[in-house]
């Protein structure tokens, strides 16, 4: 959605932007439960409609498609073809959805922005472009090479080593192809950017020196810690819930730490700054939701989001707790 917001801010009509998205498989499995929630987008739209708000035909059709869970290929194709009605179309899609829905686009495309393109091999991308039933004036590929998951055949390894866009240049010999390596991070403070750079990017990621200053959140110092990153090692047995796991001791310590933090930071108490608690297992997020009840009663304005890794992807918070929940091998 950041791409759509940027395009709208640049002057593009929102009705000219097709944002194609699809939930991960794990999220699809829980989509019916989310749809039944009173806070779901579908329920909000229904309440607005009951209150007298009139929706245009396009919104009504899309809302009807959103009620079908889990989404099927035919539903996604119908949604795509419903929205595509403009000659000045800008298409924003992840690489997976672009390869899946590209052949359904028949109108001329002004701009095609493909995110997560680091997961595509050059041959996969060329095949997806060839499957388009329309012309496009500009192609923008955005991707993180550290996220590359699809195996490359040996013949393409030299191409990958010089970059995805360079591989396309060699493949199609297009004089207007350009590769931009965005290595300056604007989203993290310097110590956090350096930690990510060291662990994931072999030191190539830098913290921008000319960025606007981030609004600082003054946090109290716990022990000898002077870094924005704090590691807490808490022992305790993992508890299995079906195919999911939780660690009650770890959850309790995280709540205790947040309680101590909220008592010393008024901005957290008053909800002016946000907190996220992220865990790799749904059982942990469910358990944490219950464990947070006393703290929410003590600080009613506390702005806390509890989410799995998939649910929190692409979101931000001022303070983030990540619960590791180590699991035992096998069935022990």
UniProtKB/TrEMBL annotation:
Domain of life: Eukaryota
Domain DNA2/NAM7 helicase helicase: 27-149
Keyword entries, A-Z: ATP-binding, Helicase, Hydrolase, Nucleotide-binding
Entries under InterPro entries matching the protein: Coronavir_polyprotein_1ab, DNA2/NAM7-like_C, DNA2/NAM7_AAA_11, P-loop_NTPase
GO molecular function: 5'-3' DNA helicase activity; ATP binding; hydrolase activity
Protein's UniProt keywords contain S-adenosyl-L-methionine: no
Domain DNA2/NAM7 helicase-like C-terminal: 176-328
The protein, known as: AAA_12 domain-containing protein
């Amino acid at each position: 959605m950041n791409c759509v917001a940027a395009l709208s801010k640049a002057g593009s009509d929102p009705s000219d932007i097709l944002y194609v998205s699809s939930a991960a498989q794990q999220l699809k499995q829980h989509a019916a439960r989310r749809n039944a929630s009173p806070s779901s987008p579908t329920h909000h739209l229904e309440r607005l409609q009951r209150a007298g708000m009139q929706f245009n035909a396009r919104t009504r059709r899309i809302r009807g498609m959103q009620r079908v869970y889990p989404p099927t290929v035919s539903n996604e194709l119908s949604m795509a073809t419903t929205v595509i009605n403009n000659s000045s179309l800008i298409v924003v899609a992840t690489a997976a959805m672009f390869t899946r829905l590209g052949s359904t686009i028949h109108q001329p495309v002004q701009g095609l922005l493909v995110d997560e393109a680091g997961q595509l091999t050059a041959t996969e991308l060329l095949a997806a472009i060839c499957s388009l039933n329309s012309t496009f004036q500009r192609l923008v590929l955005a991707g993180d090479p550290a996220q590359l998951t699809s195996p490359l055949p040996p013949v393409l390894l030299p191409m990958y080593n010089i970059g995805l866009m360079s591989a396309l240049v060699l493949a199609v010999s297009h004089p207007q192809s350009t590769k931009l390596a965005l290595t300056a991070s604007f989203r993290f403070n310097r110590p956090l950017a350096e930690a990510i750079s060291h662990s994931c990017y072999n030191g190539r990621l830098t913290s921008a020196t000319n960025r606007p200053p981030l609004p600082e959140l003054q946090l109290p110092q716990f022990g000898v810690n002077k870094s924005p990153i704090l590691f807490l090692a808490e022992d305790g047995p993992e508890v299995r819930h079906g195919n999911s796991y939780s660690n009650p001791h770890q959850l309790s310590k995280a709540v205790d730490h947040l309680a101590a933090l909220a008592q010393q930071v008024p901005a957290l108490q008053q909800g002016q700054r946000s907190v996220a608690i992220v865990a790799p297992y749904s059982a942990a997020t469910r358990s944490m939701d219950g464990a947070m009840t006393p703290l929410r009663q003590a600080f009613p304005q506390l702005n806390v989001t509890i989410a799995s890794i998939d649910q929190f992807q692409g979101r931000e918070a001022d303070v983030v707790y990540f619960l590791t929940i180590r699991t035992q091998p096998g069935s022990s």
